[in-house]
Specification:
- The protein is α/β, with parallel strands linked by helices.
- Helices cover 28% and strands 26% of the residues.
- It has one domain: Rossmann fold (3-Layer(aba) Sandwich).
- The protein starts with 8 loop residues before the first strand and ends with a helix.
- The model has no long low-confidence stretch (mean pLDDT 90).
- GO terms for molecular function: methyltransferase activity.
């Protein structure tokens, strides 16, 4: 049994055969989180992984199917942290996934520098707007806008947490590519793999996946483009496999 609160629902993570607690008024994960969890390199047998800005724990849940390592999630919003904890308990993954309710900026001092093999982050995408423009829903505003965590914060903390030779992977918007590369290099994170995600062929990319190595050598690979929809507005085979698994 799972204890659902207010307008929460229990959704399937289909390809992974897991369930996750979601709420339309508080947080529901997007395709971006799924793409990041599939894009990042993870050690299969063991390893120490951490996901920053975890929301309702979707990325740690996805990663638990790709690695036997231990996974830490960090979320500053208590309501989302609580949703993540209950989802982890429902899936009986407490022995593998540990959630922390806290500010990512405190994590290097709290958890230690250079302790993690892999760091993932799906940070807020948008600069903090004026009070007139900001979402009146506090939960959604914090998840989408750089109110409590800027891109610079997220990259700096990632660089502090990851070990030498470890991986750091972000999902973001293509418009921030140069900011991301500049900030990563300033934190000794060398971008090694980039993939652009397009709504469909003929459209501009709207999602960016980037993975860096701590103190890695310069050698950037641009992966083949990933298209979400075909000409019939149906998921492409690649996206269907990511969401639903192989037939």
């Amino acid at each position: 049994m799972v204890n659902l609160k207010e307008d929460e629902r229990l959704d399937y993570l289909l390809a992974e055969d897991l369930r996750i607690i979601q709420s339309p008024s508080v947080f529901a994960f997007s395709l971006d989180a799924v793409l990041l969890s599939k894009f990042v390199y993870v050690p299969i047998q063991k390893g120490n992984l951490i996901d920053l800005c975890s929301g309702n724990g979707v990325i740690p849940l996805f990663l638990s199917k790709r690695t036997k390592g231990t996974i830490t999630g960090v979320e500053i919003q208590e309501r989302l942290y609580d949703m993540a904890v209950r989802s982890i308990e429902y899936n009986k993954l407490e022995h593998r996934i540990h959630m922390i309710h806290g500010d990512i900026k405190d994590m290097p001092k709290q958890l230690g520098y250079g302790k993690f093999d892999v760091v993932t982050c799906n940070p807020p995408y948008f600069p903090t707007p004026s009070n007139e423009e900001i979402n009146l829903n506090e939960h959604l505003a914090i998840a989408r806008h750089e109110i409590l965590c800027t891109l610079e914060d997220a990259i700096r903390v990632s660089g502090q947490l990851v070990r030498q030779g470890g991986k750091v992977a972000f999902v973001h918007r293509p418009g921030r590519l140069l900011d991301i590369v500049t900030l990563m290099r300033s934190c000794q994170l060398e971008p090694k793999r980039i993939q652009f995600v397009y709504p469909k062929q003929g459209k501009e990319a709207n999602t960016l996946l980037v993975e860096a190595i701590k103190q890695g050598n310069p050698d950037l690979k641009i992966l083949p483009p990933l298209y979400v929809y075909n000409e019939y507005n149906e998921y492409t085979p690649e996206i269907r496999e990511i969401l639903y698994g192989k037939k």
